[in-house]
Amino acid sequence: MEQREEIIRFTDRWIEEFDIWNLKDISFSRMKKDCEDLGFILNHKKMVEIDQIDDAEELGSLIYTQCENVLNDPERIDEFDLWQWFVEALDRLSRIVHGCFFGIPKTIKIDSAPVFFNRLMTSGDEINQEIEINDSGKAKIIRTLYKEKNQTIEVQELQIDESAAKRLMDAFAKYFSRKDAYEIRAEDVGTWTVEMINTKGHAYSFSGSLVRQFILFEDTDLSDLVRETLGMDDLYVMDSEAFTDPIQSIIVEYVHQIVPDTLSIKTYAEQLIIDRSHETIELT
Known about the structure:
Elements: H1 2-20, H2 28-37, H3 56-72, H4 80-97, E1 105-113, E2 126-134, E3 138-146, E4 151-159, H5 162-176, E5 191-198, E6 203-209, E7 216-217, E8 220-221, H6 222-230, E9 249-258, E10 266-275, E11 280-283
Antiparallel strand pairs: 1-2, 1-5, 2-3, 3-4, 5-6, 7-8, 9-10, 10-11
């Protein structure tokens, strides 16, 4: 943890330096010393593309080696591409140590565990939900239900449109690749965990509190996007806004009494019935 904090301070400092100064005003000897203090080592192997590196030590050593190259060949300071290289390398190193997601997602697993703080649990309450989705559109929903003497597990598997699955996974990947991904932390509200595995097999884990917080990507709430993609309103996802008690039917009655000049009273009545299970609307 201490090494991680030191690398974060290193990247924050040098990102600011490259933002303020021209390349010729950067103290590469000081930057090299900072790299040595962090334990980075020289790597004179063939330079690797920055976006191919997901390891902080490897990328830090590459930055250290590039500093050494600049000090050995000062004429390179006039190269714009070199300035761009350091900016991109420092930004990627910063995102690596912040735990950001990298790559193309292959699977996403969302675990939601609510807390029934304001009432006692009753038989049938869902105390945990797991959602698994892969890039081919295969999805699995695992529900753990509370029972008085034990717990029961219900498993539902489904196939969703592959393009819809890709849209969902791309939204999660882009959101969790940011350093400024905002997560609210609260007590007694339950938790969510998101585990993402990329096509290289690297796993990334994120967590937060199960409260309404509008985790947005391009004005789309990720929790709502999951429900929409799977066609299920009763999923906790990351905000616990599951619609778990849907209205099954609505009956509207209208009764009107007509009192004519004669003594007889006439009654006029209408009834509108909207039924969810039968998917009907009836007027009588």
